[in-house]
């Protein structure tokens, strides 16, 4: 029997869960050999159809929200497309990241069908802030010590792999990013710190409930892999907690 997905919020119109790292959201061309998918697993777990309204990359862990009917799905998907949903991510990057900055680099689409150079460049903006940093007295690359930072990222547009590409272009690639990072640091975290995979987590969503019209704020704790790393680095004060499932419910109306 597979482990149940952690449900962070559930009402008659929406359900939010913690997506494990490396789980595909739904069946696709990338699904060779995969047997478990988020949409099907959640549907089987709660016993009803679910509608994806946004996306997370396969290696990214964290918060995803689904609609429970087609009308709610259309409304919420429109809000995501119009950037009316606030999104918060945490990432562990190489180097001593900037204290605060808005990364404004146009990004070309990546659809795999045409060379990226032929694709149009589209506006892309990500607000980032350094929450903490650490310097390890070990030679990982060419320097006698290694610096890493905990970055908060809030994408203001929704391009594919936007956070990963923006941070890499700025010079602070996310640890575990096989495409945009550096393998020597990725191996160090996987082999010496027991923290493999992409160190990027979706930890917060804020939006207007598509049916009730009330503000809804959801937060998601990190998985055990990232939680252990934060504790090891002395970053426990930045650990998010699951929130919203108890307080962000339909408001009571007066009789």
Topology:
Elements: E1 7-10, E2 14-19, H1 38-46, E3 51-52, E4 61-67, H2 70-81, E5 86-94, E6 100-104, E7 107-108, E8 121-122, E9 125-136, E10 146-155, H3 162-170, H4 183-191, E11 200-208, E12 215-219, H5 224-233
Parallel strand pairs: 4-11
Antiparallel strand pairs: 1-2, 2-4, 3-4, 5-10, 5-11, 6-9, 7-8, 9-10, 11-12
Keywords:
29% strand; 5 helices; alpha+beta; 10-stranded mixed sheet; 255 residues; two-stranded antiparallel sheet
Molecular structure report:
It is a single chain. The protein has helices at residues 38-46, 70-81, 162-170, 183-191, 224-233; strands at 7-10, 14-19, 51-52, 61-67, 86-94, 100-104, 107-108, 121-122, 125-136, 146-155, 200-208, 215-219. The chain is an alpha+beta fold. It has a single domain, classed as Pseudouridine synthase (2-Layer Sandwich), CATH 3.30.2350. The strands form two sheets. Strands 1, 2, 3, 4, 5, 6, 9, 10, 11 and 12 form a ten-stranded mixed beta sheet that branches. A two-stranded antiparallel ribbon has the order 7-8.
